[in-house]
Amino acid sequence: MSDDQQTPATRARLLADQLRAQGHDEAADHLDKTLTGSDQPSHVDETGHGFLHALRDACQTILTAIEAIDPVSITAIDELRLEVDKHLLPHGEGKHEGM
After folding, report:
1. What is the 8-class DSSP label of residue 90?
2. Is residue 22 within 8 Å of 16, Cβ to Cβ?
3. Is the Cβ–Cβ distance between 2 and 84 less than 8 Å?
4. Over its length of 99 residues, how does the chain's per-residue pLDDT go in tens digits?
């Protein structure tokens, strides 16, 4: 299954695993607790969905700051924005939304 076909909850769980592998156990545990806050799968999907949107917004804000500091990098920043959207927008949602 490609990244584009994974549910937000699945991607959030993979992120928790990656955090744990990098030694960020506390952050991974917090993310796991957030994902398992309810036994209902719809709640887990909504939580993962919200988490991915928040992460995407944070990344886009950072990219906007970099663009303001170094306007020459606009082409590279636009490519990074597309990659952020590709990986952090749940499958089927709108495309790149400029900030």
Report:
1. P
2. no
3. no
4. 455 566 777 787 888 888 889 988 888 888 777 777 644 444 545 666 777 778 888 888 999 999 899 989 889 999 998 888 887 776 545 544 444
